[in-house]
Amino acid sequence: MIKEITVAELNPQLFIAENVEEIQAAVGPGLAINALSGGVDSSVVTMLGHRALKDRLRTVFIENGLMRENEATKVVETFRKLGVRVDVVEAKAEFFAALKGLTDPEEKREAITQTFYRNVFGRIVKESGAKHLLQGTILTDVDETVAGIKRQHNVFAQLGIDPKEAFGYHILEPLLPLRKDGVRVVGRALGLPAEQFNRKPGDRDPRAAARGERRVSIHGHSPCRPGPRNPRGTARLRPADRSPLLGQRRRAHRNADASFVGDAGNDFGRHPPGNPRGRQRHL
User: How many other CB atoms are there within 10 angstroms of residue 74's CB atom?
Assistant: First the structure.
């Protein structure tokens, strides 16, 4: 049973100090690895891990072809300014191969999980000699998975899975007692810039939005060919699953096999009567 630390109870400096000690005790004189996606949780656990281990933590950005455009470059530069080196690991081909032909959201999540933890990280851990992976699992990830709302790829122990037995290394999860609001507080205390610890899922570069450009690359395919019903060659992303959470309907996955450039905020290029500007509609 995980004891939650609410944001009202949280003393960020004490939380950081205690977890620095715990990470140091777990890893000992060895090495650890962590994956940085640029999101709030992974950014905070990266800073926490480097506070504890310094150069004995190798931080990697897994280029899986499913991230925001130019995300790797932005993440590397942001953390370089914070004194953290980030190595970019090219893995698009492996993820595309694992996802090929899959349409069911749960099958996709499982394919991503196995590719990430067993193939890509298994190889990195073996090559480096590290025995620990530091990751930013939070309490909400566990709640969603255990309740059957959505299988989060980073939840194992709560499902009876031993990462050491399954993948060959131990996983450390210092943010596990926190929810997102608490993680943001810790991120601020660790010195992350506000745009990093306040980042929301789907945040975009406002300059790109102003130019009306939005690029999404999925499965590495080329842009759709324009046609009579799709003159702009716009990829149409179909909601494949929704997760009811906190009274909201969340799109968990979309199916698409294309890259596209469309108007910012549009409904993927459709301009039907009554919606002349093609504003995105939440179904």
Answer: 15
